């Protein structure tokens, strides 16, 4: 059951991922167009790169493991990249909230701290890839939840519910991510959860940070 599931599930996500790759590019372009300031444009770009990076690296990794499993070293390399890109994706997902919302002086430090955490995660992956899986999971959860402490200090809390819902969907997805070989197609289901959660977060960023009325009129008045 274990081998069959993993052999079958690798095909499915890649089709969806091709679509996801396209939509993330389109989504990035839309936020870029909605930007009124350089800072907003820069933030849209960072967030868009995080989204595109995640789906692109994941697609390439799954295609390589499925089609070219004889290329062991290359597969190993892309597996590490697949893990590294998650850290940067989490940092990128928080960036619009940290960059475009007013934060307390202490919480504002989270803007650069998330990237420091992503860099630390990268060093960890390249040093101890797949050695301590529980430590790795703890790292991901810390990276996923710790920046939320800054978000809760925002004076304007519009969109925080969507942010929390997205986070919850990611957490439910992790249950499947950790159920490889227990639940058939677990990894493919994990991908669906990731796509769903990312869509919820994108919607919140689009709605509350890029199209919410009054932000610019307040700044200009
Ligand atoms: Zn995957």
From TrEMBL:
<keyword id="KW-0812">Transmembrane</keyword>
<feature type="transmembrane region" description="Helical">
    <location>
        <begin position="137"/>
        <end position="154"/>
    </location>
</feature>
<keyword id="KW-0479">Metal-binding</keyword>
<feature type="transmembrane region" description="Helical">
    <location>
        <begin position="84"/>
        <end position="100"/>
    </location>
</feature>
<dbReference type="InterPro" id="IPR005744">
    <property type="entry name" value="Hy-lIII"/>
</dbReference>
<dbReference type="InterPro" id="IPR004254">
    <property type="entry name" value="AdipoR/HlyIII-related"/>
</dbReference>
<comment type="similarity">
    <text>Belongs to the ADIPOR family.</text>
</comment>
<dbReference type="GO" id="GO:0046872">
    <property type="term" value="F:metal ion binding"/>
</dbReference>
<feature type="transmembrane region" description="Helical">
    <location>
        <begin position="112"/>
        <end position="128"/>
    </location>
</feature>
<feature type="binding site">
    <location>
        <position position="62"/>
    </location>
    <ligand>
        <name>Zn(2+)</name>
    </ligand>
</feature>
<feature type="transmembrane region" description="Helical">
    <location>
        <begin position="160"/>
        <end position="177"/>
    </location>
</feature>
<feature type="binding site">
    <location>
        <position position="187"/>
    </location>
    <ligand>
        <name>Zn(2+)</name>
    </ligand>
</feature>
<dbReference type="Pfam" id="PF03006">
    <property type="entry name" value="HlyIII"/>
</dbReference>
<feature type="binding site">
    <location>
        <position position="191"/>
    </location>
    <ligand>
        <name>Zn(2+)</name>
    </ligand>
</feature>
<dbReference type="GO" id="GO:0140911">
    <property type="term" value="F:pore-forming activity"/>
</dbReference>
<feature type="transmembrane region" description="Helical">
    <location>
        <begin position="189"/>
        <end position="209"/>
    </location>
</feature>
<keyword id="KW-1133">Transmembrane helix</keyword>
<dbReference type="GO" id="GO:0012505">
    <property type="term" value="C:endomembrane system"/>
</dbReference>
<keyword id="KW-0862">Zinc</keyword>
<keyword id="KW-0472">Membrane</keyword>
<dbReference type="GO" id="GO:0016020">
    <property type="term" value="C:membrane"/>
</dbReference>
<feature type="transmembrane region" description="Helical">
    <location>
        <begin position="44"/>
        <end position="64"/>
    </location>
</feature>
<protein>
    <recommendedName>
        <fullName>Monocyte to macrophage differentiation-associated</fullName>
    </recommendedName>
</protein>
